[in-house]
Write a structure and sequence with these properties.
The complex is a heterodimer of chains A (about 150) and B (about 600).
Chain A: E1 8-14, E2 17-22, E3 26-30, E4 45-51, E5 54-60, H1 61-64, E6 78-82, E7 89-93, E8 95-101, E9 107-109, E10 122-126, E11 131-134, H2 136-140, H3 142-153
Parallel strand pairs in A: 2-11, 5-7
Antiparallel strand pairs in A: 1-2, 1-8, 3-6, 4-5, 6-7, 9-10, 10-11
Chain B: H1 2-35, H2 42-58, H3 62-79, H4 87-106, H5 114-131, H6 136-139, H7 153-156, H8 160-171, H9 180-188, H10 194-201, H11 215-240, H12 245-268, E1 271-273, H13 275-292, E2 296-301, E3 306-308, H14 309-330, H15 334-339, E4 346-355, E5 358-365, H16 372-381, H17 393-398, H18 421-430, E6 434-440, E7 444-452, E8 457-465, E9 468-473, E10 479-483, E11 488-490, E12 496-500, E13 503-509, E14 527-534, E15 537-543, E16 545-553, H19 562-565, E17 567-572, E18 578-582, H20 584-592
Parallel strand pairs in B: 2-4, 9-18, 13-15
Antiparallel strand pairs in B: 1-3, 4-5, 5-7, 6-7, 8-9, 8-16, 10-14, 11-12, 12-13, 14-15, 17-18
Helix pairs in contact in B: 1-2, 1-4, 1-10, 1-13, 2-3, 2-8, 3-5, 4-5, 11-12, 13-14, 14-18
Chain lengths: ~150, ~600
Amino acid sequence: MLEQKNNRYLMFGMNDRKYGVKLKFVKEVVSSFNFTEVPGAPKYFVGLLNIRGKILNVIDLKSRIKKGDSKIEPNKNAVIVIEMNDHDVGVLVEEVFRVESIEQDQIESVQLKNSDNKNSFVTDLIKKSNIIILDIRKVIDLDKLIQLEEEKSA
Amino acid sequence: MEQDNFLLEIRHEFLEESKDLLEQLSNTFLDFEKDGADSPSMPEILRVLHNLKGSGKAVEFHHLGEFAHQVEDLFIALRDKKLDFSPPVISLIWEVLDLFQKQIEALKNHPDNANVYAELLQKIASLDDKAEVENVDEQENIVFHNIPEEQNKLADTAEMSDEEALRLMQQMEEGTQITPRETEEKNEVPAVPPAQTENAKKQVPTTEETIKLKLSKVDNLLNYFGEQVILQSRLNYLVDSKAEQAELKACVSNLQKVTFDLQQMTINFRVVPVAMIFNRLERIARDTARATGKTIEFEKIGAELELDKTIVDNLFDPLMHMVRNAVDHGIEEPKQRELAGKNPIGKIHIMAKKRGNIFIIEIQDDGKGINKEIILNKAISKGLIKENHQLSDAEICNLIFHNGLSTKDAATDISGRGVGMDVVQEMIKSLHGNCQITSEENKGSKFIIELPMSLSMFNGTVISIEDKRFILPNSEFIETFPLNDENIDQIDSGKYIIERREEILEVVFLNNDFAKNFLVEGLGLKRIAAVVPYAGKKYAVIFDKILSQERIMSRKIPIDVESISGISGGTILGDGNVALILGLSQLIEKRVG
């Protein structure tokens, strides 16, 4: 009974669009925070955050997926803490909405044009509402992302 | 499968324990070497070897166990005067101890392999031949090569001398943990079918490191913790009952004290005496002296002082290189020393001491010292410095920490194995310490290493640069002083310098990465400089303000920011925000190259 259902998604907003991530990857959502910037870190890296004595990396999702930089508006922004294999990572988003259950038959998997799918963060689309489902772990995976950037610049 | 896991588990335990045992064995043997075969430490050595043999076989490291058995016989022959305690025997024993140590590490990830031991076994065997050892009983089940793998071997090995060892153990008053029962148990280890053994042999999982703690330390911790819980509930009560401010304050200050003590106590769990590495260094020094035909006296001071285990473990390698260098390059050959009017016996002196919260290790030799001419010429020919340099003696000496400046032209087999002083410096820096050298020709050299007492907890200065706060570890700088315009000058190369206590400091700005407007134009403002030693020179690192002095609990930062900007870690300040810890020497290295 307590087993988490796989069809629940946390919905959040960015650039006037709605996105979703699988709830099972979400550890918590933090709404009040104070980042510590790291000099010389990549641009998408917002800073470090103390969550109950643990230091967390926070990345800016918008800047990460090349949609510009998020304006930090502490009243609206939120950090979604994502559970990764070795450590948790915070993802700064513009706005967090709510958790929704989506039935499997409403989900359509996406095959983006002009991109080989293995590097894409976008996995699925919810029919009708056009909510984009992100493979959030892929977004975060810094090593792979850095590789990606190198490939592009090469 | 359960048996598999069981075997892996006991193997891991065995390897951890053996590490300690071998440490002990090396130390004991140092005494033994001085006292000879009648040494009071003989029973101790035999006990350790016996334990290695028995436990080794019990966890199915048969080759290792067999090897220990042979070595044990060798010592028995020494004790019974069937074998002379001659220099070749001594050096053979050192080789044996080295192999043990190497194997205990190797066995963590590799199967036990008979070939590793073959050479030394043969050497031991040839000694035995000469001495005509009559230990027929003990040699009954010795096979030098191709020791069979079968399990049933387990039952009948090691029996003969078990009784003898038990007797030894009983003789020994100090209650070591080995009991007769345990020895019996070893023989009861169930035989594992060969197939599973193969499987288990592949790997002992690399589990976390362990340390031994005195029970009293843990009890003490529990007591303090209990006190903290009581104070915490008192605090809750005071808050709920809206008590007077004064009462609250008293309670908070008590709580603070207990928390501080708890912190200290927990950190103390991590400390070990540096004697551990000092003894190993003595061995290295002696081995090196023997290999290079020199005679040395090795003096250890302050070996009982304790330091964080991680630091101690990581110190061994750099210190080893320094000691080797001191013997190999520093100390002259006996004849040369006599010609120079010195005692033909060279002196190596290693000292640990504490200054405030800083741990200092000095390695000093009375050898020929650093030839500054050679260093200079080499540095110039490599383009490291210009010919018209104006380096002080200290700076010249510290050039040896530069990559590729090993002065002994033909690298010797002893210390010239590709690891130079630059690596040594690197290793010390990674421990948040710094390393300086002073040297006088014909009188010797002295390395001074300054380290924080603990990696996880240190005294730091909270500073600000514009609106950002950073931590400077106190072990990394000498002093701070307020800047004013008069003492700053710009020199021809565009660099800024400060004269301070008759020394010239080069100014290092924490520029763009750290603060946007923090550049030269800010010099007139009231600012603070921290004096940081680096490569024999002193630098002034400039920031805005000193905010406070704090005990800093270092936390890991989850990404590898260290490579980015001279940041060595993070901490959480009283207000709950994260502050970054500056690695000053990395920072200077980055700025000045």
